[in-house]
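quick one: MU-OXO-diiron bound model?
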Amino acid sequence: MNPRKIKDNIYWMGLVDWDRRLFDSLIPLPDGTSYNAFLIKGSEKTVLIDAVESSLYYELEAQLDTVAKLDYVISLHAEQDHSGCIPQILSRYPDAKLITSPKAKGILMDLLHISGESIITVKDGETLSLGDKTLEFIFTPWVHWPETMVAFLKEDKILFSCDFFGSHIASTDLFVTDEARVYEAAKRYYAEIMMPFRNIIRKNLEKISAYDIDLIAPSHGQLYPRPSFIIDAHKDWVDGPLKNKVVIPYVSMHQSTRKMVDYFISSLVEKGVSVERFNLVVTDIGKLAIALVDAGTIVIGTPTVLAGPHPNAVYSAFLANALRPRTKFLSIIGSYGWGGKTVEILAGMIPNLKVEVIEPVLVKGLPSEDAFKALDNLAETIATKHKEQGFK
Ligand code: FEO
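yep, here:
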């Protein structure tokens, strides 16, 4: 795709990756993604903000054919999807300097073997004059690496936010037109990589609130001509009220645990609690991550296999512990054959979660009336706790 004009002398570059379905060999991308780089031509200096992965350089290189001279490359974030081809760019423009944060300098040198001599580091709040345009660098650590910063183009009121406010969407629409679609994708993105750092994200949101922003230009997905849409969404994900909702990641081997899950869901619904159910054999873990953002309670459903929880249930507990959702309550349900340490193992896997663990319901073999009664009691306990907490 050719460079696309955002405003006079400000262009989108990069590429739309329609076919990518996995990020970091881990995160599903159901809607592809884009890698957004930006070219700014000031009256005196020209800069490129971020780049693309080295294997995709050929697309950016074709766009750079329109750029005779480049004074600076700015790396807002050292992860390779935005920095991977910076060595090729510096080879193409040997007089260009690489501008980044002090922390990113070390990471870029480690990851890409870039010489420190070509790197200029900036301080938080430092500005760079391009002549008639001025960039201010604002440090926003842990979105989602420690070195991250954003850049504010003062005269045009554009915030180049790199991963912050990103969404994995492949589209020919440069600007957001369907906010509902982007909301889902951006919430997925937040859940998967930002949620563990939400206390720092809150501070970063406060920091950028001091700026009068007309447009947010992230490094993935579409640009936001209505910045309050995505800023307010992030504020809600970080600090908004939890929902009267139970998230149930589960796996079943011989259907006993599935019967318990099905019964438990009916019981919760009768008591006014909504449920999101994820069969871990087939689920998109991104959807599970989204559900965790504002869930009041997590209940893991698992059979006992080889004296412990099913490996898929172990994965869900590991994921929840890593993503650190604000969830207040957790329990476990499932069936076992003759024994094991399912509850102890799962309960020991969630030290990062500040949850009250509610008495699990584990039954031997096929669930009986006593098991269903115990599930009713668990559902009642959860419904009561949600009411006491004011979850809506
Ligand atoms: Fe899109 Fe953290 O890189």
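Residues 243-389 form a domain with the Rossmann fold fold (CATH 3.40.50.360).
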